[in-house]
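Sample A.
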Amino acid sequence: MIKIRIATNLLKRPFLLLFLFMWPIFSFKNISADLEKWILTKQCTLKVNGSTNINKFSCIIPEYTQPDTLVFYKRNKNELMKITGSMALEVQKFDCKNAMMTSDLRKTLKAKVYPKIIIVKRF
């Protein structure tokens, strides 16, 4: 009985019914063709470039541990790129190809206290 009443009430308000069905279509129209999706898999390699007051460095995580997805998009050409999604990085897996630099990076990131860096971005 309740379902019939709800459907009957919606039919009495055709504008509301039309809005409910058309809203999803028009709400996604604002996102232009500038949409890119990255799927991070176990075969991916992550590289971080940085510098200190002494030297530049480059560290990698040779194998990403779990699948994650990042979506990059712009609503128009004048807007900055926005990012949604998340990724988790295991600090112990960073390798800077220099034992001292790798150790310093892990110490700076407090690998023993925070074994994972989780980056989450939602709009």
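Sample B.
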Amino acid sequence: MIPRRTTTRVMRIDAIVAVWARHGTTQPTR
């Protein structure tokens, strides 16, 4: 259903979102 290329990106975004949710920070870190 989801192409491998998109899966890699989604997985990376999911990991970042999970970390953000755990940290609970609304400020972007650059």
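B remarks: Residues 6 and 12 are 10 Å apart (CA to CA). The first helix runs from residue 4 to 23.
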